[in-house]
Structures are given as structure tokens and as C-alpha cells.
Amino acid sequence: MAETILELRDASIFQKENLVLSDVNLRVEKGEFVYLIGKTGSGKSSFMKTLYGDIPLTDGNGRVVDFDLRTLKEKDIPFLRRKLGIVFQDFKLLPDRTVHANFEFVLKATGWKDISEINHQIDIVLDKVDMKTKGFKFPHELSGGEQQRVAIARALLNDPELILADEPTGNLDPQTSVEVMKLLRDINANGRTILMATHDYALLLKFPSKTLKCDGGKIFEVVQKSV
């Protein structure tokens, strides 16, 4: 039987006091690659933020990687995020540190102490995204595509059960977007569950997969050809 990584039942998503999405019922199983599509302002980012604890779930029920979103306490959020890999549109790399130092900061902040283990883990994830020779570089010395590869590698540092990618190709040109998508699909093929918010319909046609749509304050699954 498939293992459920993410499930929401009768959930409402709020941005401050504004209701953004209502009657959200969905399930993502281990190993799935799921797109989340919708126009700007349709609630994609608010939905993602709810999943990693940035916006509290106050209405309905939700579980993400064995954490109950309704009862999630602030002190538990770092533990939830250790089980998640989060990839942002704007990379969110610390500009004053090298790639290696960026990763070291994340690992130390999430409880890693042994420097040799830290260095080994950094080598592993950089190798997975073909960036092993770039650890000494600062973010501004990398292209947009390289920065996103680094951001994806950072998301893999704690061996996450679920990767949440929020518009990961939004700042990239079409060719680089395809390269980043191939990387994400390879990561998914190796058993990682990925939920990716995007408005790039060309990628959906090139890399079809299960698709959820935010529209009219609801989330529903769509058949690929009708996207």
C-alpha cells in the first residue's frame, strides 16, 4: 500500500485573515511528482507556506511527513522543515558566503556537529546536481541555472521525505528551465516525492505528471490534456 506523505482534508488556507482556498482535499503519495498550477494570486504560494509551517492551518485537517499541521507548535517547525526540502524561485542563498558555507550553515542549524560528516554530506549533494567543483564560489559568481542547482542541492541536505519547489524555474530562461526540470525529475526517479508550484505550462507538456490546479478558491486535480 502506498505511503501518504501529504494529506489535507476539508482544509481552508488563509493569508492573514483572508480566505484564499477552501474545502481543500488532496493526498500525495510517496514517490509522486505533482504539479501545482494556477494564476498569480490563486493561492499557490499560500498553500506551500502552509505546508512548511509559515502559515498556520486553523481550519480543517492536514498532515505533512507525519506532522499534524493543526497542532503544529512553533518549536516543532524546525523539525518539520528538516524533513522537507524547500526550493524557492529566488534561490534564497546567503550572498556573503560561499556555496559550501551556505550549506554548512544549514546543516549546523539543523543539528549537524561533526565537521567531517558535514563536508561529506555537502560533497554528496553537490555531486548529485553536477556542481561539485563550485563549492568555493559565491552566489553572485554563478549563473541563474547554477544558483538554482545549488538551491536544489541545499534542499537535499537533510535527505528530505518531501521536496516543495515553489516556482523553481520562474527566474530562468526556457533552456535552463528544462535542465532544472530534468534534474528534479531525476531526483524524483530516485524515490523523492516532489510537489512543484509553477505557471510554466510548457514544462507540463514536456514533462507530464499528476497536476493540481488552484482556481476560484479551490484546488482540484486536472487531466493533463485540459491544462
Automatic annotation (TrEMBL):
PROSITE patterns associated with the record: ABC_TRANSPORTER_1 (PS00211), ABC_TRANSPORTER_2 (PS50893)
Cellular component GO terms held in the UniProt record: plasma membrane
UniProt keyword terms in alphabetical order: ATP-binding, Nucleotide-binding
Gene Ontology molecular function terms on file: ATP binding; ATP hydrolysis activity; transmembrane transporter activity
UniProt keyword Lipid metabolism present: no
Entries under SMART domains matching the protein: AAA
Positions of the ABC transporter domain: 6-227
Pfam families attached to this UniProt entry: ABC_tran
Keyword Nuclease: no
Family membership noted in the UniProt record: Belongs to the ABC transporter superfamily.
Role of this protein: Part of the ABC transporter FtsEX involved in cellular division. Important for assembly or stability of the septal ring.
Matches recorded under PANTHER family: CELL DIVISION ATP-BINDING PROTEIN FTSE, IMPORT ATP-BINDING PROTEIN
UniProt protein name: Cell division ATP-binding protein FtsE
Organism: Imtechella halotolerans K1
